[in-house]
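Hi R.,

Here's the chain you asked about this morning:
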Amino acid sequence: MRDVEDLVKLYFRMGFTNKEILNLLAHHDRIVISIRTLKRLCKKLFLFRRKNQTDLEEIISFVEGELAGSGRLQGYRWLHLRAIRRGYVVSQEMMRMVIKMIDPEGVELRRARRLRRRQYSNRGPNALWHMDSYDKLKPYGIAINGCIDGFSRYVMWMEAYNTNSDPKVIADYFIATVARVGGCPERMRADPGTENSHVRDMQLFLRRNHSDHYASERSFVYGCSTANQRIESWWGILRKQAGQFWMDIFQTLRDDGHFSGDFLDKNLIQFCFLNLIQEELDEVVRTWNSHLIRPRRGQGTHRGRPILMFCMPQIYSSGEDKIKSVLPEEVAVCKEECTPKDQYPCDETIFELCALLIDENGWDAPVDAYHAAELYTLLRTEILENI
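And here is the predicted structure, written out as tokens:
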């Protein structure tokens, strides 16, 4: 029973409804319980959606903390889901009112209308993965690469590193995901950049002996980056939820004369910020994968949560899992041609020098963007003064 309670608590904190929790337990965990039992467990675990509302001062404090960082770019539904994940009991309407009271200017800015995109349709999860790189932070030494499932909009991977141009590094993201989900997609889509060449070769290798219509050469699709609709749309989400915040931090460092774009500055950015940015990406992805997508007229989208649409397409009449099985030895062969992320976020010599300076001066490791910016300027000043 303890395992069931842990799962119920996890799924509740992810914002799922009672019906969705029952579906997850039955289809994903092979645990069948009644709605009455689920409600009893929620009561026992003090999991309430309306009762025992969290004190308003706590909600205000939470919102202020979020708005001090990348949360200032997020709407009330997104912050509401974050609050639920952290154990607060608050309604969407209360969250909307608190945000409007604290950040009226931000609310007005988020009212800007978005461009309509052409209709997109797909036949099920793993029918088409969209892969691309995000270069907005690249001038500062941070490169992001990601992949999203076309049907469910479930984010397959989202990685921040010091490069997104090494094909062996990108290939490692791909093959690690293939190993994790137990197969490769029916098709992959990416732009013609050389960084995607290894992924193409591996996809064709893994699909060479399949007999479906998209087997072998048809299993990989090249196209211009701007037309890679699903991942390009997600980059817009990322920029609003986190990317713009980091761009503003780095632009401030540049404007204040603390960033020149040379080798040292980029490596210091990587040393101070890379792990924080990856943690932020992970949080954005977790929130996105569990949020509720609402259909829009004329866009051919399905109503549902990405994680449920990806893991349990059978609950959606139009979805059928298209994953293609692969042999473990084939995955192992591909893995030999990959380069995993290095243990050091930046150049090893710079890393060791920074670690030494931090130890000598008694500086603390950064816990947020502002502490990271302070550490960056301290390290930069110390190094430049002693060159």
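One quick note: The chain has two domains: 2-109, 129-249+274-335.

Cheers,
M.
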